[in-house]
């Protein structure tokens, strides 16, 4: 039998945490043959609720769950973890300035970065879910310099999955028949959901979404808006923000990262930019990636597209370029704001 993998979930007493921990304990994140030990962290005011979640995990008698650590101590929570899913953070409350929210999260991510750096297992993989997700991940990276930058990511898979869902409804195919949408940039309303390279299996053949949805105006307008604003639509309907879909997407993110993406399919992940696609280096920006052997690789642009053989690169048109730059600009501003909170 495999050795258990230790998975940290911060903010585990919150609503995403409540949906996420049973998925992990059932093998949705790491596979049905992978035992896990859950490490759950929250803050002292939530300690009792956290203990209640631990009681329910015991009561659910998950065969793969080999242990549960429920704690308000960051060091205990981070010790020897192989995977860290960072859901805990300070939410924006009505009337609060952006800078105040940023400042709270910068201080949380700075201290949790140090704890992870000192106490997590070597090669620990980190996924930041808490907003502002890209910038929290960047702060975590800056304050955990010994964790390889390749190991620090943020969640845009929910946005990616939302885009797949919208295309599936529009074209009238199962969502599993849609692939290769892209979320570029920030997990915010400036994100760019891009279907330029997306395909659908229809009547047994793979076809470009653009050839099936003749309404280009919808793809360039309504579709983008729906995906960008979906979080707000869920809040309006549920009076609570997305939780089950966020938890499910976090499992998808880690599963594909660890176990690999299917041949010919890419997914969206917020990763440390190396300057690919002329996105400024040094931002955590969502790119199309493929994963193999536990490592992600940005799907690369190619400038040899003329040959028309199927090269893996993606061509970026002017419409896309503008949207990719706008969301990069927002991230550059967020980064500056985060840094101004450090001094
Ligand atoms: P909740 O408020 O239900 O839960 C957050 C939990 O974090 C609470 O239990 C709180 O006590 C805990 N917490 C606060 N500070 C902490 C700290 N320093 N250490 C450990 N735990 C701490 O929020 P929930 O709905 O679960 O959302 C969690 C985060 O995910 C939010 O920041 C939210 O904005 C973000 N989201 C990100 C998404 C994404 O796609 N990247 C989508 C869903 C979600 O909106």
Query: In angstroms, what is the radius of gyration?
Result: 20 Å
Number of strands: 14
Overall pLDDT: 94
Question: Strand order within the widest sheet?
Answer: 3-2-1-4-5-6
**Through-space gap between termini:** 49 Å
The helix/strand order is EHEHEHEHEHEHEEEEEHHHHEEEH
How many strands, what sense, and barrel or not for the largest sheet? 6 strands, parallel
How would you sum up this structure, described in words?
Substrate binds at residues 92, 98, 131, 162. Pfam families: Ldh_1_C, Ldh_1_N. Residues 156-336 form the Lactate/malate dehydrogenase C-terminal domain. Keywords: NAD, Oxidoreductase, Tricarboxylic acid cycle. With 343 residues, this protein is an alpha/beta fold. Helix content is 42%, strand content 19%. It is built from eleven helices and 14 strands. The protein has helices at 15-25, 47-59, 74-78, 98-119, 133-142, 157-171, 209-212, 216-220, 222-238, 244-259, 318-342; strands at 5-10, 36-41, 65-71, 83-86, 125-128, 152-154, 178-179, 182-184, 192-194, 199-202, 205-208, 267-272, 284-292, 295-298. Helix 6 packs across helix 9 (222-238). The model is unreliable at 303-311 (pLDDT under 50). Ligand NAX binds at residues 10-11, 13-17, 41-43, 46, 87-91, 108, 129-131, 133, 155, 158, 187, 241-243, 246.
């Amino acid at each position: 039998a495999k050795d258990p993998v230790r998975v940290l979930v911060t903010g585990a007493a919150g609503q995403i945490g409540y949906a996420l921990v049973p998925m992990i304990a059932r093998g949705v994140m790491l596979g049905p043959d992978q035992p896990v030990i859950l490490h759950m962290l929250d803050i002292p005011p939530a300690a009792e609720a956290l203990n209640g979640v631990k009681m329910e995990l015991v009561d659910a008698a998950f065969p793969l769950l080999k242990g549960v650590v429920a704690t308000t101590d960051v060091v205990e929570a981070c010790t020897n973890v192989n995977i860290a899913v960072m859901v805990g953070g300070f939410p924006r409350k009505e009337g609060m300035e952006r800078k105040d929210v940023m400042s709270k999260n910068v201080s949380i991510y700075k201290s949790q970065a140090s704890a992870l750096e000192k106490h997590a297992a070597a090669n620990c993989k980190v996924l930041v879910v808490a907003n502002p997700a890209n910038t929290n991940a960047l702060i975590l990276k800056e304050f955990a310099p010994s964790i390889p930058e390749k190991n620090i990511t943020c969640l845009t898979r929910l946005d990616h999955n939302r885009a797949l869902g919208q295309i599936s409804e529009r074209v009238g195919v199962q969502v599993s028949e849609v692939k290769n949408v892209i979320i570029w940039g920030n997990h915010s309303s400036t994100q760019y959901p891009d279907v330029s390279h997306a395909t659908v299996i229809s009547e047994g053949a793979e076809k470009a979404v653009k050839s099936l949805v003749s309404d280009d105006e919808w793809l360039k307008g309504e579709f983008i808006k729906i995906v960008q604003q979906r979080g707000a639509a869920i809040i309006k309907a549920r009076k609570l923000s997305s939780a089950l879909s966020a938890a499910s997407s976090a499992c998808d993110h880690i599963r594909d990262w660890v176990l690999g993406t299917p041949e010919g399919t890419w997914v969206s992940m917020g990763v440390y930019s190396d300057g690919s696609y002329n996105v400024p280096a040094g931002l955590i920006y969502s790119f199309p990636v493929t994963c193999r052997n536990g490592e992600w690789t940005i799907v690369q642009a190619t400038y040899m597209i003329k040959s028309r053989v199927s090269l893996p690169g993606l061509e970026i048109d002017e419409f896309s370029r503008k949207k990719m730059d706008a969301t990069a600009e927002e991230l550059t501003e967020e980064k500056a704001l985060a840094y101004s909170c450090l001094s």
